[in-house]
User: Fold this.
Amino acid sequence: MSVPSDIDREAMVVPADCLEAAESLREVGAQDGRLTPEGDEDHLVVNIGPSHPSTHGVCRIVVELDGEIVVRAEPVIGHLHRGIEKMAENRTYMQVMPLTDRLDYVGSMYANWAYCRAVERLTGIRVPERAEYIRVIVCELQRIASHMMSIGSTGADTGAFTAFMYAFVQREKVVDLFEAVCGARLTYNYVRPGGVAADLPEGWEEKCRAFIEQHPTAMVELDRLLFGNVIARARLKDIGVLDPATAVAWGATGPVARGSGVDWDLRRDDAYSVYPRFDFDVPLGERGDCYDRARVRLWECVQSCRIIGQALDQLAECEPGVIKADGLPRLLAPRPGDAYDHIESARGSLGVYLVSDGSVRPYRMKVRSPAFANLALLPMLARGHTLSDLVVVLGSLDPVFGEVDR
Amino acid sequence: MSFVWGLLWGLATVLLIAGGAVIGVWWERKVSARIQMRLGPQQIGPAGSLQMIADVPKLLFKEDVVPAGADRRVFMYAPLLVFAPIAMAIAVIPFWAGWAPLDSAVGVLFFLAVPSIGVLGILLSAWSSHNTLSTLGGVRAAAQMVSYEVPRSLAVLSVVVLAGSMRPTEVMGAWQWWWVPLTLLGFVVYFVASIAEMNRGPFDIPEAESELVAGYFADYSGMRWAFFMMAEYGAMIAASLFGAALFLGGFVWLPGLAGLAVYIGLAALGYRDWRRSMAAEALA
Assistant:
């Protein structure tokens, strides 16, 4: 495969000091997951995962304990690495779509959309307005579904299994809406380059409206059920405190950063698609603990309902049936070049970088995964807390390992 | 004669615990399911009531896994050391006015002391599993069970002082209605400490589903695992019977029957209500 002509070849060669850095990283990596205590000889090293009820996927965490207190917590990632970025290099632009579904399998719509935006930027495809509104609606629904999973598992981690079930009832309703739209409940493959795969089915808008009218009430109920509970408050408050400066320095985005009071939301601050046309607030936390992070997610769901309501109103004025850009070729072969685009996913800023060499397959795909950046905070946030709190801190970062390992 | 009697009584105790566990598990699953907007067991028997009957053979025929690094003999017998003391403690509970299977002058002390042996079984099972999660769970369980022993014993002392005897049958015989306001606080303490003793939620820190998976019995399977569950439900039954006998005047025919009627009535109401809500949902 040839390197695209108008790309600076020199810039793509890894400089020597980077190679040295990579070598030293490799040495550190070789010690990953060591099961011998690093500090005191009396410390107990506990291996959690990769198969464990509270790792939210396949994460392995090596924890060094002094009694019940975490001295060192080290996530050992890569158990779910499928080489999606590499696989993308051997597929046409359209064939990459199902791979993006499997990045963040709790929020497939986001990866779909981020990838499509990068492709559209690369090829210059203009997306019809109706498709943009549909994308906003399904992605805000996806935010609700994803946050319900996160809040529910926060409940399960703190022993409040009832809250888990209540959250999942709401998630189930969203997933039913998705099933009506695209036939799938988990890997949607719905947002496509140039538009969306299919128009909304008949009567779907009414069902969606019924949901967004009912959902805020359910959120108030869940707020009282989970965050009003004295046990949950004791388990979540002042646990894993992340200060705003550290959040920014470590590249944390999404509810993890906003829980610390970092006022940053791509939907507003880099208003993409049709987001400038909507009126919504960005909920912010104050203390940056697990409680604030989880609660920010809860109120984001209510804001998502506001956005969906406005989007449904404006969708009614769009030309019906126009959901795909005109004159889309069967095989996309963008001119040589690169493109990066990002969206605000449920976990933060999700970006896709594509390099094209002019062929029908991407020369390189790189995913900027918010879950990966957020997970890097775990060793810092968990230190000094008990083992039980480690699980809560991990849950509050809401990692999805499909996206972390890719 | 006394040997045969003892054997029969032992069998009766095991049946009591097993029967109580069967009903308790079903009822617990049904009620928690209702609270959590689920259905709970529903396939086997009316409203899933025979689910446990199906579960017992499953547990019996499950592979008895002993982990590779485990201390084999200790690992295999530790569950018995958890279960046996609970079954023993049931012997001093007065089941009838002036009658208990083992009518001991220090019955109250016996009831408080003997189940504590179970801590040893828990520690042994945790340590012999050769698993860091189990070890942590075992240490947690030991710390918790030993620490709640003190308030529990002190709470029981309140009725012992009022009755002037440590013989459970005598305490039950001396019971007066005006003891209730006097020992109310003691009863609450006894109840809470008992829940902590048997490691049930919200005191399930040793089992800690979310971080230790199941704590000290994480590596057990099949019948050995079932012994831990039986010990847990046995402790629940024993603590309830003992608390009723000492703090609430014990077993009298009429209140007992009334209680049973209320229990069955509630179950029937719950079942009907559940069926109705299911029907309404199906129509909607």
About this structure: The first helix of chain B runs from residue 2 to 35. Chain B has three domains: 1-61, 62-251, 254-284. Chain B touches chain A at residues 32, 35-38, 132-133, 135-136, 201-202, 204-205, 208-213 (CB under 8 Å). The two ends of chain B are 65 Å apart (CA to CA).
